[in-house]
Design a protein that fits this description.
heterodimer, A: 468 residues, mainly alpha, 6 strands, 3% strand
Chain lengths: 468, 98
Amino acid sequence: MDAILAGLKSLFDTLGATVMLPIIIFIFALILGAKPGRAFRAAVTIGVAFVGINLVIGLLWNTLTEVAQAIVKNTGIQRDVVDVGWPSAAAIAFGSVVGLWVIPIALIVNIVLLVTRLTRTLNVDVWNFWHFAFIGSLIVALTGNLVYGLIGAAVAAALALFFADWTAKAVQSFYNLPGISIPHLTSAPIVPIAIVVNWIIERIPGIKDIDLNTDTIQKRLGVFGEPIVLGLVIGLVLGLIGFYNVTGGFFAVLGKVLGTGISLAAVMLLLPRMVAILMEGLIPISEAAREFMQKRAAGREISIGLDSAILIGHPAAISSALVLVPIAILLSVILPGNRVILFADLAVIPFVVAMTAPVLRGNVFRMVIAGIITLSLGFYIATAMAPLFTQAAVASGFALPEGAVQITSIADGFLWTPYVFVQLTGLLGVVGLLIILALVGAGIFLFNRNQRAWEVAAGAPAEAVSGD
Amino acid sequence: MNQQRVKRILVACGTAIATSTLVAVRIKEEMAKRGINVETRQCKATEITSQAQDVDLIVSTTPVPSGLNKPVIQTLAFLTGIGKEDVLNQIEKILKEM
């Protein structure tokens, strides 16, 4: 087994993600029952997407590396870990050796847990399997052991299903989404934090009555939701700090500053577009996987697991994210010991806070507090994991520029879930993975024993909901 | 068939990437089968208001702001596979009545 996997890894390293992933996707799509023509076109599309993502990430890294180094020189502030955004993280994850196997692994984990009645969620959100591959690829970067990475990805898939079941009733009632659950590892990790925040705030007189008006926030701060403008402004500000004193006079400074602004605005628009191509290529396989799974789960009362993207339009999610964007930028400057400079994933903050809304009854003030705690913690997690993140990117074939800074992203480099996986595996090897597996198992066991209480804790209405 | 201009559909979700791509590709393929020429554009939930002006129809997988003055379909049918035909028929009807 080890020899086969090692052989595959070296084949993969030689050919690279742009070649290997299309081949694998083509084969999986056929196995799952997609038509050959469609599967072939999808496979090639995925290879093309990787080329596109690589180009844009190159632009991003070059621009940010240059300006980050200039800022360090000018101010002495050490911010040399650059936030390259979840599109890069997803590409790194799917482009890793673990990424090749994550689709069948997560499907098998889901089928096994459904058959054993340990989950009620049918996760058809194949796209977001990248979160599992991300954790796996970090473990491989840390240990060099592909088997550990694959186990890590499998455990992460089970963890996502546990979170989805736990929060299903809460999400269904708050967001009015009957039959849906959210097995999403960017959105779920904040739920325990939100429960604690809520418990504390409920006990502070005065503070517990504060709420914020979502309409006013959306009107006043709407600009923070427009990626191009955000990219431009951040680029201009960073450019000013880094290049106000470049030699060559006023026009040289102007050229550098405006150039940085436009480059970063370009990245903000182009990076998601490139990832949309990747998504397009995954459609036949994700649809085939959905039909494959639905056929096998027929007749059961199940929730269909979808992307938390469907929650983001809610005013509470949008508003708290808009408030959090400037706060997050401020945090990145003032937190001592932080080395992360935020950029591409400022757009992902709604995903981080969306699932707190049921627990916090859509109270934007409390959502912002939960967000601040999660992000503050995140800066240190991200700073600590940046070397691994960067190493995983290189292993997936992304070309880091000469003398480049390290990289991270809010999704999922800021989150405690991958950190726990990486730390425990780093300390204890396979034993660490088994501990995490045991913890997930204990979570599932306790949830099933006392389902109502857990659901109410995650924000489900206290009175019984119909059916069960 | 009369000479009809291309219908523009704005497809919105949380990212303008993940679920909206799936919906956009599906709508394009299915409407082509039904002989309706559509062009889709994707946007984030936060951008709907500024992008809604020059489109004929908005299809979203996530809640949309009120007061857009355009027909809006909020649906998960393309993601779950449940009720997909109904939604496609609804889209066809709206576009043909234009």
